[in-house]
Automatic annotation (TrEMBL):
This is Large ribosomal subunit protein uL6. HAMAP family: Ribosomal_uL6_B. Keywords: Ribonucleoprotein, Ribosomal protein, RNA-binding, rRNA-binding. NCBIfam families: L6_bact. GO terms for cellular component: cytosolic large ribosomal subunit. Residues 11-82, 91-164 form the Large ribosomal subunit protein uL6 alpha-beta domain. Pfam families: Ribosomal_L6. Transmembrane segments: none annotated. This protein binds to the 23S rRNA, and is important in its secondary structure. It is located near the subunit interface in the base of the L7/L12 stalk, and near the tRNA binding site of the peptidyltransferase center. The gene is rplF.
């Protein structure tokens, strides 16, 4: 049994949750999210709590038990507080600028790279070296941040590139001269 799946999820004030045909819909001050939960998992809605239980003791249902609880919890956190991921741009001449809602990157290529935000994602730029990706869906924020990081991954010799704020780059020694 999952220890995470056993914990009930508290519903904060201002958040509305509905469960219908294994689809959990969450609405809050930041937006709306919905997720289809696997039929092997039951979602029980009380006044201020949500609990997750399983129908049988099969391996598949036990593996989906904690996952379903975490997905519902992430939806509730997303619509009440939101998620964000911070990226740092390092390197001489590497920078990012916000033009309208889209991002304009200069990453050492011969052309600028323009990234448009998908629906539900906002960008914020601090200085020209720090980028913040904000949104309601944890999965979508993480995926957009990973796609931006892929534009120019940090290299191990000088550390140039786009990296997460909490990421540590293991540096290599360069050539040793005589």
């Amino acid at each position: 049994m999952s220890r995470i799946g056993k914990k009930p999820i508290e519903i904060p004030n201002g958040v509305k949750v509905s469960v219908k045909d294994n689809v959990v819909a969450v609405e809050g001050p930041k937006g709306k999210l919905s997720e289809r939960i696997h039929p092997l998992v039951d979602v029980n809605l009380d006044d201020s709590n949500i609990s997750v239980s399983i129908n049988d003791e099969s391996k598949k249902s036990r593996s989906l038990y904690g996952l379903s609880r975490t997905l519902i919890n992430n939806m509730i956190i997303g619509v009440s507080e939101g998620f964000q991921r911070t990226l740092l741009i390092e390197g001489v001449g590497y920078r990012v600028a916000l033009k309208g809602k889209s991002l304009d990157f200069s990453l050492g290529y011969s052309h600028p790279i323009v990234v448009d935000p998908p629906e539900g994602i906002e960008f914020a730029v601090e200085g020209n070296q720090k980028l913040i990706v904000k949104g309601v869906s944890k999965q979508q924020v993480g995926q957009v941040a990973a796609d931006i990081r892929k534009l120019r991954k940090p290299e191990p010799y000088k550390g140039k590139g786009v990296r997460y704020e909490d990421e540590r780059i293991i540096r290599k020694a360069g050539k040793s001269g005589k």
